[in-house]
Amino acid sequence: MKNLYMTTLITATIIAMSGCAKDQIKEPVNVGANNAFVTASNKQLAKYPVTGFAYKSTSVPGQQWKTWARVAAPVVKDILGKIPDGYVLEVRGHADSSGPENQEGGKPGNMNLSRDRAKAVIQSLESAGIESKKITYKGVGSSEPLAGYPPRSGQQRRVSFSVVPQ
Predict the structure, then answer these.
(1) Does residue 149 form part of some domain?
(2) Residue 104 or 16, more confident
């Protein structure tokens, strides 16, 4: 009788555990697909930063923007249309290491400059007909320098794009 009771208990436990396991594993294939999409998109987006910002300027450089818009805007628009739920396209502004990171006296600070550069690029995207609720922005100041260039060089003053979790 003890054996029958133990066998029944073990069988019931296994059935209950397998039912719970199925509920916990929602969609592993989609998670992998999202990760693959994010990785591929970010590699592609890394090729198209908006560059050429003047020192202490948040104005999108006209000539560079025209070239960028012709080449990169279609790529950004395509990726934006395919972003899975739970992710956004982050427009990230950068600054060189000149000046303070935060506003100080009459200096705007790299964090403010980089944030305002990202906002200006979003406005330029909107003017080009690229609008979405899945676009966000962030200023990172000089905390993410571009490898291979001096920290105070003009190449550090840029805006980059990446798909990130919301």
Answers:
(1) yes
(2) 104
From CA 103, how far away is CA 139, in angstroms rounded?
Answer: 13
Give the model confidence (pLDDT) of 70-118 as tens digits. Answer: 899 999 999 999 999 999 999 999 999 998 999 888 888 999 999 999 9
Segments forming the whole domain that contains residue 156: 49-165
Residue 105 lies in a domain: yes
Contact 119, 137 (CB under 8 A): yes
What domain count does the chain have?
1
Q: What is the DSSP string of 97-152?
A: SSS-SS-BTTB--HHHHHHHHHHHHHHHHHHTT---TTEEEEE-TTSSPPTTS-TT
Give me the residue label for tokens 């003009």.
154
